[in-house]
Amino acid sequence: MIKKIPICFVMLFLFGGTFEKANAVERVIISSLPSELWYDNLFLLAYTIDGNWMAQRTFTIQVGLGGGESVLLYHFPDWYNDKFTPELFYDDLTGDHLKDIGVVLISGSGSGISTKEIHILNQIQDPNRRYEEVPVESINDAVKRLVKMERQGNLATILIGKRSMWSSF
Q1: Which residues contact 149 (CB under 8 A, 6 or more apart)?
Q2: Which helix (H) or strand (E) holds 144?
Q3: pLDDT tens, residue by residue, 134-147
């Protein structure tokens, strides 16, 4: 009888409490770019957010297949994607003849408008292949820097870089 009491308390402790919904977080492959070369396979992984299966956070980029030192992993705990599948690119984006990684995340959306966050990982060889994230200027900052407008009477001049356009109204 004495042995049964501790077992009952243990059972009551384990199974007698209230069952609350567990915060299930799942790490999934969000996007991938397969290649015939094992070291050129790209995978974009992230954790899904509980209660919003379309949103992801804490991203990892995996470059290469297999295990050990041949696979490159880059972690980005502050990246967030609100809806839809992020876009993944693998091309020479900087003109240095080395393939870079581009990731486009949806940071917000609604009413037919979406805001996107662009991340570029520039490939560097020194002598090993590796990637470093480079800053990307926001669209608003680029427009403020590159676009100038001037109005004289009913003629408006818009200067974009070295090109100009005129319009009368």
Answers
A1: 156, 157, 158, 159
A2: helix 139-146
A3: 999 887 888 888 88
